[in-house]
Amino acid sequence: MKDNRYADEWLDNLEAFMKGETPPPADDADIAHVATRLASALAPLREMAQTRQRVSQRSPSQVHARYSKLLEKPRLRLARSQLLIAALLLLTLVAGVISIGGLARMEEVGGNAKQVWHTSTSLDQINGISIESFSPPHPGLKPLPLLPAILPARTQAPSYGVLTDASNPDVLTTFVANYRIAGQDVLLYEQPTDIPLTSTIAQTVQIGDKIGQLFQDEQGNHALQWYQNGMLCQITSKLPVARLIMLASVFEPIKSWDLIR
Amino acid sequence: MRSITISTAWSSLVKQEKRHETLAGEQVISFDALYQQYHSPILAFLNFLVGKPEVAEDLASLVFEKVWKHLADIQTADTVGPWLFRIARNCAVDYFRRCKPTISLEHLVPAEHPQADSLEEAAIAREEERFLLAHLNRLSEREREVIGLKFVVSLTNREIARILQIPEGTVSSLLYRALRHLRAALDEQGGHDER
To answer: Tell me, what's the ipTM?
Structure first.
């Protein structure tokens, strides 16, 4: 059975929507109009994504021509003397690179895949959200979020915000809270979900009896993500990881919105 | 001839990858499969993000260079799709860091509108489409990415969530919010015919 929580379920499959197979609810008609126009405007790029794929499937030789240098590297067969010369040249080159401070660059190249992963963690989702733009929670809104049962001393009063389903304002889609702990912002972000997400890039951490995932970015932000009581929870902060884990380990579902309104 | 829809591209690729590896066990063939499967969607997505076909071509090449270099880092075949689109996205971000171009997609709007019943309707549709394409610049980077992956690459919310490593619900929210912004802008501009 399909989950009915999200207002844009009708837009999940764009092709079906464009064919009229998944009509939007009546109160989404104005949004559907924009979606139709946008889909029409971007049709040339969509066709490019689909049509040229078939062309390229017919001509794999073009791929090899274009990437021939890269593709041929593993197939090099050199005589012993050539290998010796190559090794000497390589040693000289490496020494030169290190001496001009190129080590950092080499590390960067070596760890490039990791770099790519690290710049695309779910931290970005927090950066794009301003709590001020969210609505305050109201009674009857479900599901209820989780909050830390114990907060560190001198935690400044948090602010809260929610996003709700456009077709049903009593259905929570996103809950955000902002705490100030030890002079650092601690953003809490929760979404109801049936699927605990796993990431191949995150570090796995233990949060009490739960498993969490830890993301980090180059600015020293940590994002700790875990799944609890039907919610994907994330706390993001510059606070030390140990403190975030401690905070995450005391999260419990709240019983009423009255506690935080 | 193989026919693979974009929305099922990843699962299809998993099967292809396994077959190729079984038959030959060579990295080169896997790279070819990746290239054939993903080059066009990646190129279209980059075109959407940077708005310049020649830059998109360069960035797509860069993406596949990185793919070649880091092919061994791919842990499982079903992570390939999200990985590739994340590299593409990061290449676009790097490009924007180097230079801050004005992105314009308005050239995409056709001179004639195939779905319009009358000349007047066609003119309104063209005008709205041009306005929406221009207004995409005012969306957040993340909203633009979601719009691109949805409206250009035709991915499902779940697939987009895997690429951007955000919950599926966030994709829904971002998508809905972006469309709502565009709708509000359209209303403000007064270019929308009430229906």
So the answer is: 0.74
